[in-house]
Amino acid sequence: MTLATTGDLMRRAAAGGRGILAFNFVTVEHVEAIVAGAEASRSPVVLQLSQNAVAYHGGRARPVTAAALVLAEAAAVEVALHLDHVEDMDLLRQAADAGFSSAMFDAGTLPYEDNVAATRAAVVWAHGAGLWLEAELGHVGGKPGAPASAHAAGVRTDPAEASEYAARTGVDALAVAVGSSHAMTTRSASLDHGLIARLRAAVPVPLVLHGSSGLPDTELRRAVQSGIVKLNVGTALSVAFTGAVRACLERDAAMVDPRRYLAAARDAMAGTVRQLTAAVDEAAMDEDG
Ligand code: G3H
Ligand code: ZN
């Protein structure tokens, strides 16, 4: 299977009324698990590396991305690579050469006019480099600098403002604040599906949901049916990874070979990916049926 681009996967998903899951990776084990889980449910998938994960790797995006590219090229399903939550233009400028087909430029904490100007400049640069560019309007909570609550006044994306924002910036996809929040370790959030439908009607580009770890399967499926195309998941993999490692080490306090507990972590993450991709794929089946 050849490497896919995020733009192609999203265009096709949008046309077919389907959702596409995008999983954040940190280590090579994450990539192996994401590919294995997507293969098990025969779903295309986006592998995404955040600016924070690049910082974890000492500011170097290329080593772990090179491994992700090789694994993506060998996958039995279509896999695209996306650079996530980029605030640093210098990092964005490395994206195409490192092998990413898309990036999310995150000016979400800036005042509206500054967000428009910074995102427009990022779009112009990205399109010149052949990259598909996602940006965010509104505030998905749970990240430093953003409001803590997904329900605080003024945090949700306004459809009229989103329409103007998309036209002025020329973004290819828009991340919206509709009730989800980053870094949730329980699946207890609920979305404003009426707002998603109004945003879909107002905005000509595909909509993206951040903080999807906090949503139960039913909400993920309804999100797709309401008009979300790309669903970002990170924390659910951390929960699976860390839970498996903790269980291994609690079972055997003398265990020192990392291959043993990392294999358990990888299997747990693959199970999460398989379960979530299958759940989201059912959204399209529900609609067809
Ligand atoms: O961009 C990444 C996502 O929004 C991940 O959010 O870690 O809450 O699933 P999450
Ligand atoms: Zn996010």
Helix content: 40-55%
Q: What is the number of beta strands? A: 8
Give the low-confidence spans: none
The ordered H/E elements are HEHEHHEHHEHEHEHEHEHH
Counting helices, strands and paired strands, the structural category is alpha/beta
Strand order of the largest sheet: 1-2-3-4-5-6-7-8
- What's the helix count? 12
Measured on Cα atoms, how large is the radius of gyration? Answer: 18 Å
Task: Report the bound ligands by name, code or SMILES.
Answer: glyceraldehyde-3-phosphate, zinc ion
How much of the sequence is in beta strands? 5-15%
User: What kind of sheet is the major sheet?
Assistant: 8 strands, parallel, barrel
The overall average pLDDT, rounded, is: 95
State the end-to-end CA separation.
29 Å
Q: Give the overall form.
A: globular
